[in-house]
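Incident log, structure service

09:12 report received: a user says their structure output differs between two submissions of the same chain.
09:20 pulled the input from the user's history:
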Amino acid sequence: MLRRKKVAPTVPVSSMADIAFLLLVFFMVTSVLDSDPDLPIELPDVPGGEQLNKKIANLYLSADSERTVYFNAVKRPLNEALSEIRAKLTTTPDLKVLIHADQNLTYEELDNVFESLKEIGALKISLVTQTTQGGGLKGQ
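09:34 re-ran on a clean worker, output below:
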């Protein structure tokens, strides 16, 4: 009786690199980048600073130097923008509210907006600034 040699089962891995590359290209093409709204707002300049995670959904509340309020790049009255933020926070309480405030706005105006946001349940609020390299103040 003749015995056959047993061939060990193998998995062809030569095309796995191609498949990984195709998946990488697919996810790069289909992903949506979240960008800051293009509004005419002159942000305050801060040395250093912390970069925010752009992959997390954010709500954008913006105000220019004429005190015009924008919610997600759409011009709205402040009370209407706050009610929309409240509605979105009821369904997704982990949303972060990013405030793009012109550097010419007063601290009192910003504080009033922060207080209004806290009253409607916004717990994650950030003030967006331009970051510069290095530390210290300009002109020193």
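09:41 both user submissions now match this output. Likely a transient worker issue. Closing.
09:42 reviewer note: The beta strands are 45-47, 58-63, 69-71, 74-75, 96-101, 125-127, 130-132. Confidence is low (pLDDT under 50) at residues 136-140.
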